[in-house]
Amino acid sequence: MEERDKDSTEVSLKMEQVLYEVKRVVVGQDHFLERVLVAMLAGGHLLVEGVPGLAKTLTVKTLANTVRGSFHRIQFTPDLVPADLVGTRIYNQKTGEFAVSLGPVFSNLLLADEINRAPAKVQSALLEVMQERQVTIAGVTHKLPAPFLVMATQNPIETEGTYPLPEAQVDRFMMKVLVDYPSEEEEFVIVNRVTSDLPEVGAVTSTEQLVHLQKMCRDCYVDPALVHYAVRLVAATRRPDHYRVPNLSKYLQAGASPRASIHLVEGARALALLRGRTHVRPEDVTDIVPDVLRHRLSLTYEAMADAVTPDQIIHRIMKHIPAPERMLETHVKLDANA
User: Where is the ATPase AAA-3 domain positioned along the sequence (predicted)?
Assistant: First the structure.
């Protein structure tokens, strides 16, 4: 038990150091930064929705520096082709042979800027990258470096010239985070910081250490009652009447997949470790539910007509399916010693 507590303290302190370095450059956006760290620990991908100019690119680039990782940014445009993303074979006239030129996806942190501006072929190419963490070029498979995190952004305002993301690709993202404008005080600090010399970010960990922290994250204890709670929440998005959530079926065309249940548990584990614990509490699950589910719900036209949002549906489901109050004996002992 003492060894596990020591491990959780190590993870928490290391992530605090990473967050401290990032906060030297990025102002505010606490919820967004916490979710980025959760995705890093859990090994998931992040979909970020927010207007331009909210430090999304700066955040990922700064994170890459803190973990001594490689960073690439791809500006998605309608004329992008899969080869621009994953790479291609190039003919060498001097040798008379083909050489493989790997694309920008071969990095630890990949920022897919305005991902919904790319056509379906490019989005399909990214699908294999996100799920399999490998790229196939001319029949040869190339493994991506570990760790690997895709953070994709999309603009909620502009819809002209955009392509809706396929359901299969949206489901690959562990979370969808909504980034809002900074407060007046935060924007004052942003202006002062950007108009002067930005501090240099120090590397506080390495990609090898991050892979080790990800393995430790999977050892975080999750009570079966909490796993069942996560499964019930996700199942309620598919059959709300079965779980006695009234007046919701008319708004839901399709619910979340089993991948949502998996990501709820994995995200809660990472959140618990960030908070210095080796076990998951109910609040770790409830805190992350909206981010994991909001992009997985397909709403009907009636929901759009009534201005019903995915977040409103999620909160109604959580209100009718409360978190478990009683844990197994092991969890109770862990909670008492925390």
Answer: 45-175
